[in-house]
Model the fold of this input.
Amino acid sequence: MARKQLNYQSVLLNDCFSIKKYNDDYYKLIYHKYPIKNGGFELKKPNVEISRNVNDEKLDNNLSRAKSKVFEYAACNNFDYFITLTLDPIRYNRYDLSKFIKDLGQYIRDLRKKTGADIQYLLIPEPHKDGAWHMHGLVKGFPDQELELFTLQDKLPYRVLELIKNGRQIYNWTSYAEKFGWCTVERVKSRNAVSKYITKYISKALTVDFKREKEKKLYYVTRGLKTAEKVKEGHLSSDQLDKITFNYENDYV
Done:
């Protein structure tokens, strides 16, 4: 059935909002400051003057969507550990992200088969200043026998030793370290706090670097992770809007 072609203003909904549940302690109210399209219609959009570089706008939109999705995965899933994964330059080409991703994915699949653990992850690649790659991420369903607590007697960076000296419990992922390189693992203390923290690794520098290699992604996740649930939607009156303090705004919400 052909969709109806109507005037741009005739099928728009104004002052719309939705509420999404991320977990029992975190909900998000989204207000659409511009009218949104009613379902079932195609619109002939009016001419809009573009006041900025199209590529810059696309880049910013990609960053915004990626950060939003990373936060959503992190907040909606009860991850156990925050991890940082590096590559040993003797064993690996630290500049080959494709091989890192491929080998790490296979390694985790093999570990699932070996231990029977349902390992799930959210991983974000990050380049060093020299272009070499490492990753930050969140994991759950991790087999505890894979972890070994670092001590002050271990050969570690000064920063990590200071954290341990101050009481932080930091673990080594032993089989990863044997195959890939140095890593750290810390238990997540606050789901919402770590969800906000991990989005900082989605940066403009990362997006620009990925322009050269289109197959790369800004983040990697296992299938089946939970996402936010829309629990309510409707319209807000002017009086209701005046009583709400929003803490984020972009070109759309």
